[in-house]
Design goal:
The complex is a heterodimer of chains A (250) and B (447). Chain A is of the alpha/beta class and 250 residues long. Chain A is built from 9 helices and 12 strands. Chain A has a 6-stranded mixed β-sheet with strand order 6-9-10-3-11-12, sandwiched between helices. Chain A has a 4-stranded antiparallel β-sheet with strand order 2-1-4-5, with helices on one face. In chain A, strands 7-8 form a two-stranded antiparallel ribbon. The two termini of chain A are 30 Å apart. By secondary structure, chain B is an alpha/beta fold. Chain B is built from 10 helices and 21 strands. In chain B, the strands form 2 sheets. In chain B, strands 1, 4, 5, 7, 8, 10, 12, 14, 16, 18 and 20 form an 11-stranded mixed β-sheet that branches. A 10-stranded mixed β-sheet of chain B has the order 3-2-6-9-11-13-15-17-19-21, covered by helices on one side. In chain B, strand 2 and strand 3 form a beta hairpin. In chain B, helix 2 runs antiparallel to helix 7, helix 8 crosses helix 9 and helix 9 packs antiparallel against helix 10. The relative contact order of chain B is 0.09. The chains are: A alpha/beta (250), B alpha/beta (447). The site of adenosine-5'-triphosphate has 13 residues of chain A, from helix 1.
Chain lengths: 250, 447
Amino acid sequence: MALLEVKNLHATVQGREILKGIDLTINPGEVHAIMGPNGSGKSTLASVLAGRENYEVTNGSAIFNGKEILHMSPDERACEGLFLAFQYPVEIPGVSTSYFLKAAVNAIRKYRGEPELDAMDFLKLIKEKMKLLEMDQSFMNRSINEGFSGGEKKRNEIFQMTVLDPKLCILDETDSGLDIDALKIVSQGVNALRNSTRGILLVTHYQRLLNYIVPDFVHVLRDGKIIKSGDKSLALELEARGYGWLENAA
Amino acid sequence: MTQMAQVNNQRSDQARNSPVIGPDYGSRWLADFHQAAAAAFDRIGYPDADDEQWRFINLSPIRKTTFHPAVEPGHVPPQELAKLSLADRGFYELVFVDGMFSPAHSHTGDLADKIELCRFKDAAGKDAQRISPYLGQELSALSNGFAALNSAGFADGLFLNVPAGVAVGRPIHILWLTTRHSRPVVVFPRLSVNACDHAQATVLQTFASLDSDQPVLTNAAVEVVSGRESQLELITVEREASHAFHVTNQAVRVHTGARLQTLTFNSGALLVRNNLHVQLAEPFAQATINGLTISSGHQHVDNHTTLDHARENCPSHELYKSLLAGNAGGVFRGKILVRPDAQKTDSKQTSKTMLLSDDAVMNSQPQLEIYANDVKCTHGSTTGPIDDEQLFYLRSRGVSAVKARSLLTYAFAGDVLNRVLNPVTREFLSELTSDCLHRMHIDAVGS
Ligand SMILES: Nc1ncnc2c1ncn2[C@@H]1O[C@H](COP(=O)(O)OP(=O)(O)OP(=O)(O)O)[C@@H](O)[C@H]1O
Ligand SMILES: [Mg+2]
């Protein structure tokens, strides 16, 4: 069974159609990359899958783990195992990262019917993951993303992802804003999550990320539609030639 | 029957429109005090609808109801008192039931060894001389009908004198509890605090009432003097039941080098009006006045504050925050008065409101009156809904809508709570806030 099966997905924002019929199937263990020009709808696709409320789905379906998710609340989708690493993670002053993350971990565990983690177990879990992403422990006591640099915010997203252990990871331009070393560390973090059951959907503009996290499939999104799909060599071709040549192919 | 009950019976016979006159316990001075205030009320009456200071509050439910003074302290179920008591948290606790001090419910410990405590009921005896110089002194800054009614009608109350150089240590909790009655009742809580030079104290007042189908009017008056170099933290917690109308007039005078800090916390009652008047009466006095309001349903909370900078070199800082859900209404009027002598005034006022429903309304206005030329006064006001981006972020990680809203509203309130100086008080208020918010969000989801 496919992990995620998106069919003929249409979505509008403020009456304007942004997604114009997306078909995408991700099987367990696969890594998919989505590339495409600015404004083509990549973040919209990610947001619609995660359940952001200001997008209206006008047609189509998204079956995740055998369940239709388009009617679910964002928190329910997260509990089902979907994770979105944001392109622009928001700052939340006054809410500590550790308090929030513990609430998230336990909400998901409760949903799965697992016992909640106590303070000790939680601390153990996050210490281990922080080490993996070479993060400073002081991050946990700070308000969510408040005053974090662009790169720190992205790293914090991947850190949360590894703690929450999702079935499908959607990474929206996690590479942009990262320095070369941070890109390596973050990629290692993502690669550590690769296994035969998990799916990963990477949104990126740059082939460079795909050297570290090698995708099984690459798709080109343009004007709300996937106009070309291929293997990792497609990304190399896009890097060399841009998107112009696809105009004719489409 | 005691003399007290007789006096009260006389009072309730006095019928509708004339003010309630409180008992004098045989003290000529107290009788005169009540009478003078009653006469003042007869002159000024209730605030008019066209009175600028009272334009945003509808007093007609109060004016239409005939409130009777509580005749005798009613029954206090122990489990209700337990919910309100802070004695286990290490507070000294002074409990008033229906306006009368109740030693049986109080936990004064060694408080009387540290400070002077006089109840107004004892004013006939030796305490008259202690109390009389203070009573009514500060309140003259707030000459409205409610203040006059309180002065005319109070049956008991407290004078706290913190002697020079004394740091009380444990915070003092004064609980004003109104019990269940078979007809509308009015109570007149009255408190006078005198912090002498270099004294330090934290005083937390709770206004509470037992759930009832009869309306309650709590008309409180508080007078405070902060002596030189004193440090006084005054907290007011309004958590009366939904049948209550509440008015507090609080006037504070702050002397050289003193640091005054207040927090007015509102979560209860149907209609609340808080008048807070702080005068920085001498150079280098400091005041920080904060507010936190959590309202829902048809609650209406009106906070009027005045920071009166009378002399030079005084900083003042004001932060009022409101969280309004349902059809709640909020008003904030913050007046900064800088008198001609108040050069080098440094005053900052901020009002922030989070609206949790489309039907909640906030009306926030600063009012600056500046008569000195070398001053720094800033003010800012923001009103807006909960941030959708933040909400989505939290929910996208699995946190439920109720929990996410609790986290964000708590963070909003936390900004005020973090400023509370006394740690035990801060911890209590933090817990109270999260309880209030949790209940509010659960209600919102249920409806
Ligand atoms: N909330 C919104 N309100 C109005 N327009 C929106 C909203 N969200 C997205 N859009 C519009 O939808 C289109 C697609 O935006 P989207 O963010 O999905 O693009 P993208 O492919 O992620 O671009 P980029 O590569 O720049 O991140 C854009 O034209 C954008 O302006
Ligand atoms: Mg984008």
